[in-house]
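Input set for joint prediction.
Command: fold jointly, output tokens.
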Amino acid sequence: MIVVMKPEHTEEDLRHLVSRVEKMGLRTHLSRGERRTIVGIIGERDLIREIPFTSFPGVEAAHPILQPYKLVSREFKEENTTIPIGAHVELGGRAIPIIAGPCAVEGREVLDEIADALHALGIPMLRGGAFKPRTSPYSFQGLGELALKFMSDVRSRTGMPVVTEVMDARDLLLVYKYADVLQIGTRNMQNFKLLTEVGQVDKPVILKRGMSATIKEFLMSAEYIVSHGNEKVILCERGIRTFETETRNTLDLSAVPLLKKLTHLPVIVDPSHALGRTDLIPAMACAAVAAGADGLMLEVHVRPHEALSDGSQSLTPEAMAQLLDRLEPVAQAVGRTILRTHRKGQDDAVRTAAGAS
Ligand code: PEP
Ligand code: MN
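tokens >
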């Protein structure tokens, strides 16, 4: 249930409402918007129905939330949620940040090479796996804490906030210590224990869509995190399993405008894991921005042919530079910009150095 307070309500009205509701064993969630204060009431539907909300002092109206997900729904909060990350990035705002980097952190030197190339392009955030969810137990599993240290050193040197996956609730404290943003991978979208744990920390979470999850299931997983107290959730469409085999997955771009309609949370797109091949990435990255994505996640490697994982879908920094040129006019056509941490003059010098026109 959403209880909308009158503009002139007092703090005492709010306290009274919250304490009455919580005494009945229900949970409340306060949202102070620019225009209105809203109290979300969560719990047993029959119990909620018994409460005469509109006769409480300071209450204007009460509306049931029809969707099974409540706190993440647009019904609950009309305005877009924006999530600040580090000093220079905001996800969900007008400027679209790109999160780029290798699939896995393979060593200090190669990570530094990749990060420096991305930083020189003005890419605001670095990604890289320390704990890798590999289909085969014989494949490279990631460098663990060592990788986290390398990433946090890159952050100290360049100022780029770092994103990395947490695969298991037992690793959360360790990953939390080093990362700016925690990533939940597609294979863990319904690991409810892990969702509950990341719901109790104060760092932003990128929640990737399960490869066979419906939009409703995706939003219910986001609801797990938010209902445990962490409202900084970023949804990531990364392709779903279909009968098609030419691409690694099928990028469900309709998920972007659909999610933007159903939820106030920011939505980003990862064309790398969706396509599994580099040749289609520029077109689909542009399409994602045109569809309303609030950010992009892209795998980039300085020598994709030597990558220990996902080399076939990793762009080179040169290809990334060219993609940036293609993305900017698309972003402008939909009233946005691509967030760069550089001034124009520097960009041009860097692009020339990278060999791009
Ligand atoms: C990743 O981004 O490193 C990753 C493993 O992606 P996904 O969980 O979408 O497969
Ligand atoms: Mn990967």
